[in-house]
Design brief:
The protein contains 5 helices and 3 strands; from the N terminus they run αβββαααα. It has 143 residues and is mainly alpha-helical.
């Protein structure tokens, strides 16, 4: 299993590692990737970058951002239950899994859309699928 420890007090991290090594086999390394996210360090800061994850997600769903998308939400699209045209539920659920992961990992700017779209996991319509695609394109454009 993957785990990560970050601290501004190195002595505390060393003590925690010493205690954990009693029960687990640990490998310690300078962290550059964790759960699909790139970790960069410098100037006293640690940054989590999701560019590679976002690119892979867009590729997985066959999406490209051909024009600038400045918001994950299209104000002209109402996200209500859609009775007439059904969307691909499996594709929608996979997209929402990716969107929810990225929103909690490092992109809170899409959390509201992730929450709104997640209400339609059981019975998505084609507009919900288009809205999820827009979120992924927005992520791709703003990575």
């Amino acid at each position: 299993d993957d785990g990560m420890g970050v601290t501004s007090v190195p002595a505390q991290l060393e003590e925690d590692l010493r205690l954990m090594k009693k029960y687990y086999k640990l490998e310690s390394d300078n962290l550059s990737w964790h759960l699909g996210m790139r970790i960069t360090k410098g100037s006293g800061k640690m940054m989590i970058k999701a560019d590679a994850y976002i690119e892979e997600m867009a590729k997985r769903f066959g999406l490209v951002a051909t024009r600038k998308i400045s918001s994950p939400y299209d104000t002209s699209m109402e996200l209500t239950k859609q009775y007439d045209i059904k969307g691909d539920q499996q594709r929608f659920m996979e997209m929402m899994g990716c969107i929810n992961y990225i929103s909690t990992a490092c992109r809170p700017d899409v959390s509201q859309m992730a929450s709104a779209l997640s209400r339609h996991l059981r019975d998505p319509g084609s507009k919900h699928l288009r809205a999820a695609e827009r979120v992924i394109k927005y992520l791709l454009w703003t990575k």
